[in-house]
């Protein structure tokens, strides 16, 4: 898998149900507070009970959303550092046991590269020898709990032959303790979403 300059920062796409649920919880708490100001003491106690029960669920949703945003930001930073060839920054964002799995549907499927040094070598020496030009532009980030699916638009020009290849691909980045621990490319973006447990 290759990392190259991105023209812009794509939007983050998360799980909309979480945001919607948080809105409904907050709306329920606000309604309960309004009812509290209008009703009797018994009504006020009931409203307080509703607010108290909703608060823990709201905090759980907020925490999940924060973690999802953090994962996306880590992957964004990892890709940016890779494109700038900032190996020191890449090392900060990579798990010590990082693995690069060969692209599903590609010639390297089934291969596994372990450790940052081996991952970088595969990019620089193995893949780099076959292509005169390689560009991989992130076009979207999909939150998948402990993973992030990145949708790419890819362009390649063959070394010597000049043959050009342009297509849409994807990759799944799995995180552990806030660092990228596993990467795998997919020739078919739908297969990447499915592998990450996301619906079509």
The residue fraction in helices comes out at 40-55%
Tell me the strand order in the biggest sheet. Answer: 1-4-5-6-7-2-3
Count of helices? Answer: 5
CATH class of the domain at 94-195: Alpha Beta
CATH topology of the domain at 94-195, by name, is Nuclear Transport Factor 2, Chain: A
**Could you give the order of the helices and strands?**
EHHHEEHEEEEH
List unreliable stretches of 5+ residues. Answer: 2-61
Outline type? globular
How would you characterize this protein structure?
Strand 2 and strand 3 (112-114) form a beta hairpin. This protein has 200 residues and is of the alpha/beta class. Helices cover 48% and strands 32% of the residues. Residues 2-61 have low confidence and may be disordered. It has a domain at 94-195: Nuclear Transport Factor 2, Chain: A. The chain contains five helices and seven strands, in the order E-H-H-H-E-E-H-E-E-E-E-H.
